[in-house]
Amino acid sequence: MARFGTKSRVTPFGVACSDRQMTYRSRFYQAIAPCIERNPLAAFFLGMSSGFPYALIGATLTTRLAQVGIDKKSVTTFALVFLAYNLKFLWAWMVEGIRLPVLGRLGQRVSWMIFVGVLMIAAVLNLAFVDPAANLMATAQAAILLGIAGATYDIIIDAYRIELLEPRQLGAGAGMSQYGWRIGATGTSALVLILSARIGWEMAYAVCALFALPAMITALVMGEPIRHQHHEKKKRSWKNVGDFIIDPFIEFFRRKGAFLVLLFIILHKVGDTLANLTLRLLFSDLGYTNDEIAIYDIGVGFWALLLGVFVGGILYARLGMKRSVLISLILMAISNLSFAGLAALGHSNLGMAAAIGFENFTSGIGGVTVVAYFSALCSLNFTAAQYSLISAAASIFGRVATGTTAGSLIESLGYVSFYILTTVIAFPGVILFWAMMRAGLIDKSIGSAGSESTNG
After folding, report:
1. Are residues 161 and 256 in the same domain?
2. Full-model pTM
3. Longest dimension (CA), the chain
4. DSSP per residue over 377-392, as a string?
5. How many angstroms separate the CA atoms of 394 and 309, rounded?
């Protein structure tokens, strides 16, 4: 029976519920409803295929090389493979402008998804059956090819996701894509380690090549994005390759405040990148074991990020793009202080769990709101080229700064002062975004991807 003074009703499934329970369920459904629409669900599967190559050329390749006795200097050099992701804007115009023979009948986006997906599988198999102990150079070449294939897959996946989603779905779609990316990357990392101990590295990598399929299947099921079809006719009137290479940049910089927007894109993540790429050094110097790192860094961090993605989707839906982005930027900047606290505290599992949990939670929120904002900046005429430029600009400066200055800063300042400095470095991006909000430049810089619906 319901409590005295509380009304009850029967749900369609024959279960009695109080009004309060119905309210909670209604609110929960309203929170998740945008995520379970057809297009955001498609973004989830796109994210899975986007995340898996990053894992294969990251930690899993490092483990494979270390286990066959490759020296540390050579192992760390393989991190340069990730430069392909920072330079992908250089060839994004090809995905935008070249019409594939035969496959092109499926549509520009679908045909490239299938084509690059097949290349992805071939690149994974190529890396799988190279023996690092026998030929390290061939392994490096295979890793570079996989990096280029993965970066190209990102180009078409991002373009397809943005064009598939309506402007109102950009937040939910970004969240579902983040879920998919994390599951694809984490699932690949775990699966390849488990399988390698049982069937060898070669077959483990070969099995993980199947993670390329979700995006390919999604494209075949969903078909060519309607928003892309509306703009495809305009592209056909272009007569030379230069239109596809130069016009995306010209269109972007014609917008009011474009240079300030680009400056924000470059600055907003520098402090976060400096902090995150040095964490393993901190953990090592504080004496954490591999098991502790696995539990508190990877384990706690994984669930905290998923929770942050969920909260980010709610904030975006309730507060709108501008306010949710500003809040996420502030939280991400402050999260660096948690590492300063951990460094001051010393070896503490609870402290590590709290610091990693808070940082990943805020990153999850930002992964929804900021990615949705960057997606909205694109013009539907140049989605692939412009988003590739935006995502590259958002990461390359931080990576270069980390590689050239982080180590020396830690040695001269110590960990506590270093992480306080990364917090300070993060706030110019926050202030710049706030100033652009006040000046109305955020709305004026939005492209057609963030304003033009299917019927627009």
Report:
1. no
2. 0.81
3. 77
4. TS-TTSHHHHHHHHHH
5. 19
